[in-house]
Amino acid sequence: MAIRSTSEGPSATRRGSIAVSLIWLSGLWLVVALIATGILLTSLYSRALDTSLTETLEFHAESLAGALLATGDPLSERIRLADPRFDRPRSGWYWTVRNTDGDLYNLSTSVVGIDLPELDAPANVLGVRTDTYEDAFATEIRAVERTVSLDGERYRILVTGSLSEILELVGEFRGQTFIVLGAVGIMLAMMSGLVARFALKPIDRLSAAIEGVREGENTRVVGAFPREIAPLAEEVNELLRSNSEIIERARNQVGNLAHGLKTPIAVLRNEASASDSQIAQIVVSETDKMSTLVSTYLERARLTARTSIVGKRSDTSAVVTRLARVMAKIHPQRSVRCVADPETTPWFRGDEADLEEIVGNLLDNACKWASDTVQLEAGSASGATGAMVVLRIEDDGPGLSSEEIEQVMRRGVRLDEKTPGSGLGLDIVKELVDVYGGAITFSASRLGGLLVELTLPAARATGSVRSGPA
Question: Residue ranges of the alpha helices (H) in 215-277?
Answer without folding.
Answer: 230-273
